[in-house]
Amino acid sequence: MFRKVLIANRGEIAVRIIRGCRELGIKAVAIYSEADGESLHVRAADEAVCVGPASSSQSYLNIDAIIAAANSVNAEAIHPGYGFLAENADFARAVSAAGLTFIGPSAEAMDLMGSKTSARRVAVESGVPIVPGTVDALSSFAEARDTAEEFGYPVMLKAAAGGGGKGMRLVTSSDELRSAFETAQTEAAAAFGDSALYLEKAVERPRHIEIQIFGDSHGNVVHLGERECSIQRRHQKVIEECPSPINDPDLRRRMGDAAVKIGQTVNYTGAGTVEFLLSDATHEFYFLEMNTRLQVEHPVTELVTGFDLVREQFRVAAGEALSFTQDDVRWVGHAIECRIYAEDPANNFFPSPGTITYLREPSGPGIRIDSGVASRSEVSIHYDPMIAKLAVWGRTREEAIERLRRALDEYHVSGITTTLSFFREVARDAEFVEGKLDTGFIARFNERRTVEDPPEEHVDLAMIAAAIHHSRNQQPVFLQTGSVSASDGRWKMAGRADGLRRWRKS
Amino acid sequence: MKLKAIIEDREQELNVRIDGGRVHAEVGGRVYDLELREPEPGCYLFLRNAAVHECRVSESHEAIDVSLHERNYAVTIVDPKRLRVGSDAHGHQHGLAEITAPMPGKVVRVQIETGATVEKGSGIVVVEAMKMQNEMKSPRKGVVVSINVKPGDTVNAGDVLAVVE
Known about the structure:
The complex is a heterodimer.
Chain A: E1 4-7, H1 11-24, E2 27-33, H2 40-44, E3 47-52, H3 63-72, E4 77-79, H4 89-97, E5 101-102, H5 107-114, H6 116-125, H7 141-151, E6 155-159, E7 169-171, H8 177-192, E8 197-201, E9 206-215, E10 221-233, E11 236-242, H9 249-265, E12 270-279, E13 285-291, H10 298-305, H11 309-317, E14 334-341, E15 343-344, E16 350-351, E17 354-355, E18 358-360, E19 367-371, E20 378-379, E21 386-394, H12 397-410, E22 412-414, H13 420-426, H14 430-434, H15 441-448, H16 456-472, H17 490-505
Parallel strand pairs in A: 1-2, 1-4, 2-3, 4-5
Antiparallel strand pairs in A: 6-7, 6-8, 9-10, 9-12, 10-11, 11-14, 12-13, 14-21, 15-16, 17-20, 18-22, 19-21
Helix pairs in contact in A: 4-5, 5-6, 12-13
Chain B: E1 2-7, E2 10-19, E3 22-27, E4 30-37, E5 43-48, E6 51-59, E7 64-68, E8 71-78, E9 97-100, E10 105-110, E11 117-118, E12 123-129, E13 132-137, E14 142-147, E15 154-155, E16 160-164
Antiparallel strand pairs in B: 1-2, 1-8, 2-3, 3-4, 4-5, 5-6, 6-7, 7-8, 9-16, 10-12, 10-15, 11-14, 12-13, 14-16
């Protein structure tokens, strides 16, 4: 096993990997940008090395600086986490060239699965169905327009090098195509340094279900079942669960086999995730893409299977065989994860950076928090706005949802706006409770959601608390009209309208 | 102390007297007799007939944010003794809608010209922040009377990007 590992990441995933190191007696080395010197992942590490200025292109994406950092502290291996360089085959090659171990799949497997176009070819070779779409990157807008006409709208534009919803656009009609094409190209170029796009027919009312796979260098490839990730905004997951509410053993076996076949085709080692679109009507599934890294939502799989995926990653990277076989994998109970973002759900999930003035995280039965922040942490504009993940486990989906509601109510974050209020509503939403999920969930939820008036007593007490606080800090507070600004989303307006109605009644 | 509290565009008269560990308050004619505890700064714990109400209070630039029973309230407190009420410098002119930047970022594209007629929801300006491109849309149907930014401009939260009449 390794003696010392450098974690080429920040935030909650760096903290998660440091925890894995600690359990295995591995010294953990953090890297940080100049903006992150006081971050939680630095405080949690044994050693920490600054790799550059705040901008991630000069720090967390700076391959030379990261390898120099690993060499300066005599680390033996580098764990990339997710995002940043995790799926960059050139980074994996540079790590190997420096005589270090890259904790992840081979650069060849990353090359094959990293580009969506070549990944689709691998799927076809493996006998796994794919969604109709272009196999090669689009050469021009004209080609995009012609292909879209051929498939029929709606179509999906995607960054060939992409992931995480960046450079991805759903286009429902031809007059939206040009703007979407240009925006997706710019975003893809900014996020991945590659503006190449491809185009797919969009599957209607699709469920996004993915299979966790794991391979080792001894020829074993196993799967750890599915994760349902249908609740998304801007094509980024916000709630994930395991098992899927529509799971049955046959579907899991068929999807698991398909994912394992893809893993075998590319001699996959380490943790990987094969994403599928599943038609809610027919339960037919199509290969979407493969993520050649640990996923954000890996905790739900860990909670239900009991395996520690980071621990297995270290084992496999050190050349050992997986600690379990396919027959050892059992799924017990139900787990749900919410990604807590510093975003304003009342304003189209726009990022809300700032300083966390107060933080209280839930705990108790069945609760797991993977957090990258502490009280007084600064949520910077430089990085992804996800601050933590809340995962809950229950014997049944119903019990998991009850725990989720309780945990969300226990969770307090002050100073920044977070998606907690959104999750509190979703956890009480009838369609969510029934497991009626597809990628259009949030759009429909926003249509049907209603804001309940708070009890008059609570409004009064809030005002009394504000008045007491005001008297404690005698600073002039100026009158400000609360007119609805142009950027306000429907939610806030609905909330304000309800407030008005409430007051008029009284 | 006699104050005015504003939540959701509505004003409410408020009379609060703190007496040791107790608070006597009158809000719009409703009387509250509360036990007050302050376990830590920014936390006001009220006990009312044994019912527990924990208020977390933090100050933002425009209001006092109170979190109570999983809800957030933005409360503006006006002290009549300290302020000439009615001097509302921020009043919006009737008929104008400002499209403002909700956070710091960079203007990527301006999608429309001054004088153009727009529908409600038409994209006006695309701003990139935290690696996401966000299309700022017109909140109403009307005519674009000004565009205050160009591609490449850096904007701060609250900056007016464009005005629609």
